[in-house]
Amino acid sequence: MKPVIALVGRPNVGKSTLFNRLTKSRDAIVADFAGLTRDRHYGTGKQGKHEYIVIDTGGFEPDASSGIYREMARQTQQAVAEADVVVFVVDARAGLSGQDHDIAQYLRRLGKQCLLVANKAEGMLEGVQLSEFYELGLGEVYPVSAAHGQGIRGLVELALERL
Ligand code: GDP
Ligand code: MG
Fold first, then answer.
1. DSSP string across 98-159
2. Distance between Cα 88 and ligand 2 center (Å)
3. Nearest-10 Cα torsion for 4, 17, 40, 54
4. Pick from 77, 72, 45: which is nearest to 155 by CA?
5. How far is the CA of 1 from the centre of ligand 2 (A)?
6. pLDDT surpasses 80 at 90
7. Structural domains in the chain?
8. Any residues with Cβ below 6 Å from ligand 1, and which?
């Protein structure tokens, strides 16, 4: 079984853009993996000879109790359960938000392998602008730019090292 990487994070941080960077084929693969649920986006990617599966999720709102937010939280929790590594995406430009804190708390409680990624970090002075994300208590903050394709190879390497 290929390792499964789940992308989680609040809406609009760039998860789907990152998913597209990390994968070549999409969705088609679902049928090949019994046990993975069908209501999310799956794709496969390959770096060197290492193949992996990526799950994109719609969003995350752990404390919301109704409607679309509940559904997004449910999907994300399921993706996290299926994942070998969770990539938690935050927005380097928007900065830290309350929702980021909620998600971090949820992930810390699970005790799952987790990689904190600050997207939209193109052209930023990493050390300075990214320091606030250490507050989340998830260790290193890894800057990438999904839109510009920066830091993607390194991210995959780090994720696969965590297996
Ligand atoms: P999602 O809701 O987390 O899936 O986020 P999307 O992938 O839909 O992206 C949300 C917005 O952020 C879109 O307008 C993207 O073009 C933009 N975006 C994604 N990645 C980057 C990036 O690396 N840099 C910048 N500046 N914008 C990005
Ligand atoms: Mg999306």
1. HHHHHHHHHHHHHT--EEEEEES-TT--HHHHTGGGGGGSS--EEE-BTTTTBSHHHHHHHH
2. 13
3. -10
4. 45
5. 25
6. yes
7. 4-161 (3.40.50.300)
8. 9, 11-17, 119-120, 122, 145-148
Digit-coded pLDDT (tens) for 58-81: 744 455 555 556 666 777 788 899
Q: Is the pLDDT of residue 110 over 60?
A: yes
Tell me how far apart the alpha carbons of residues 3 and 120 are, in angstroms, rounded to a whole number: 25
Give nearest CA residue, ligand 1 atom 9.
14
Nearest ligand to residue 11 Cα: 1
From 85, 87, 97, 92, select the one nearest 145 (Cα to Cα): 92
CA distances from 9 to 1, 50, 158 (A): 25, 25, 18
> Could you give the angle at which helices 152-161 and 15-22 cross, rounded to 10 degrees?
80
pTM across the whole model: 0.88
Q: What is the dihedral of CA 111, 106, 21, 13, to 10 degrees?
A: -150
pLDDT higher than threshold 60 for residue 39: no
Residue whose token pair is 């992308």: 7
